[in-house]
From TrEMBL:
It comes from the Bacteria. Residues 3-116 form the RapZ C-terminal domain. InterPro entries: RapZ-like (IPR005337), RapZ_C (IPR053931). This is RapZ C-terminal domain-containing protein. PANTHER family: RNASE ADAPTER PROTEIN RAPZ.
Length: 120
């Protein structure tokens, strides 16, 4: 089974790492003030993200791109980065949704690079 590495990150801390197959910039996806407290790891926040207009379609499209890379990329893992402003809400929430959608098709390594920084 192929492997997929999904990385969520915050652009305010650093750009995405090099070597990604694709990077999705989620900074302008919606206003964070529409979300409940917490992070993208919390179910109420993820539900609020996925209920925003276009969120399900965006996630499905990103998942289709990942699936295409799984079918055509070389032998190593497919590497995906999802970035939002601080990496606290949008990027982790959509990364988890992609993880869940791809889990039946690949081994998934999910990392939230900057999530801990929101609490420093």
């Amino acid at each position: 089974m192929r492997a997929v590495e999904i990385l969520s990150f915050g652009y305010i801390y650093a750009p995405p790492p090099r070597g990604m197959h694709f990077v999705a910039d989620l900074r302008d996806f919606y206003a964070e003030d529409a979300l409940p407290g917490g992070t993208g790891l919390d179910r109420p926040v993820r539900d609020a993200i996925m209920n925003l207009p276009g969120a399900r379609e965006l996630t499905a499209s990103l998942t289709q791109v990942a699936s295409a890379y799984l079918a055509t990329a070389g032998p190593g893992p497919v590497r995906i980065a999802l970035g939002s402003t601080n990496g606290r809400h949008r990027a982790p929430g959509i990364a988890i949704a992609m993880h869940d959608a791809l889990l039946a098709h690949a081994r998934i390594d999910l990392t939230h690079r900057d999530l801990h920084r929101a609490f420093e």
